[in-house]
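Methods: example folding runs. The two proteins below were folded one after another, and each record is reproduced exactly as written to the output file, sequence line first and structure-token line second.
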Amino acid sequence: MAHRSNIVFSEGSSQSKAEDYVELEEQIGTIRRHRSEAGRSDLPFDIRAFASNLDDIKRCEEIGVTSINASPDANAKSTKDYFTDWIKQYADEVISKVS
């Protein structure tokens, strides 16, 4: 999670590296608390997380994530065909269903 000063003074975003939704939700609570204590809770702030499927995206949205980063499996063989297939699958299974 970003340092407190980045959270308080940034008008940008914070990227979560939480291992699970409980930890992510706690981090979002901390971010909100720090911003509120600094009188900045009314300013725009983007909270980003990684999610690879529609269920994960919906759960992230429920707990306050505002942007999703998505990418193919980092451990997979990175070929042009693999990446192209991943994009098509992601478009069909996720993007087409997100409003």
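Second run, written to the same file directly after the first:
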Amino acid sequence: MSYKKINAIVRECCLDKVRRALQAVGAAGLTVTHVRGAGEYVNTFGRDTLSRHARIEVFAEDGNVERLVAAIHAAAYTGQTGDGVVAVLPVEAFYHIRAATPVSSPASSGPS
């Protein structure tokens, strides 16, 4: 089985909507980190030019990636500059810390 890592950076105000959308389409789990940065949109009205966003990380089997990315896009889309980005990265190996062998499926392997 092959896996991908989905990294999404979305507006903080969209985080709960994205989380619910991912749960609705069967995401096995996710990690959220609150981040600050500048990309296409730069806050030029304050002294701090960095905007606040949420980074969402999801490990998924190849066959589920498009569905998960579509759910993120639909939930995070506002049509405004600064909506965020989604990147899909290959995963060479996937292990739980408690185990010494590769995981056969992140969804079926139980809690980390």
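Comment on the second run: The CA atoms of residues 36 and 52 lie 5 Å apart.
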